[in-house]
What we know:
Distance between the termini: 19 Å
Helix content: 40-55%
Structural class: mainly alpha
Amino acid sequence: xxxxxxxxxxxxxxxxxxxxxxxxxxxxxxxxxxxxxxxxxxxxxxxxxxxxxxxxxxxxxxxxxxxxxxxxxxxxxxxxxxxxxxxxxxxxxxxxxxxxxxxxxxxxxxxxxxxxxxxxxxxxxxxxxxxxxxxxxxxxxxxxxxxxxxxxxxxxxxxxxxxxxxxxxxxxxxxxxxxxxxxxxxxxxxxxxxxxxxxxxxxxxxxxxxxxxxxxxxxxxxxxxxxxxxxxxxxxxxxxxxxxxxxxxxxxx
Length: 253
């Protein structure tokens, strides 16, 4: 049995999110902490729904903008001599490529408004900085979504990619969905971000693992007001995490 799957709950242990407890509770890891299987599944499912709806809406809008751009460009190109430019086809392909690239750059910035995208706002989710707990800006949003946007642009660009696009996107979606089970996906690790539920934002595991900012010591086992390794004062937020971990879950050091 893997470390990620603990079927029998310790006596007195309860989920820090829903407070579910009992011998039949199945425990899973979310951002390194034990939560019940249902809570982890609900979190991953909400994130998948948010991304899927936003992606479908984005592609629909992008295709409409691209079609309109091509129609307007064709009307303009008919009025001029395109012999020197190698023909209308080349120009139209270039316009299509520019629209796709710019569109996907904008898509990568969708979480950069204090950590909210439209669907994340609706579903009560927010992207925050791992260290500060504050909503992220445009730069971190671009970093965490760059990979998804890049794959999407490649899949939609060109005749061959258009044929393989749906298959590649399905594979990419499955890979991302698989990563969401533990909390972090690759983009989050690169950008230093994580997605939290605003309903439980003040609870473990969304508060994060309390690590000393100076020496990197894991503070979950300490009962002091300062780091036992270097003496750095422990912030109020970190003390709150330590209290929750020791009181509700029991630290696993």
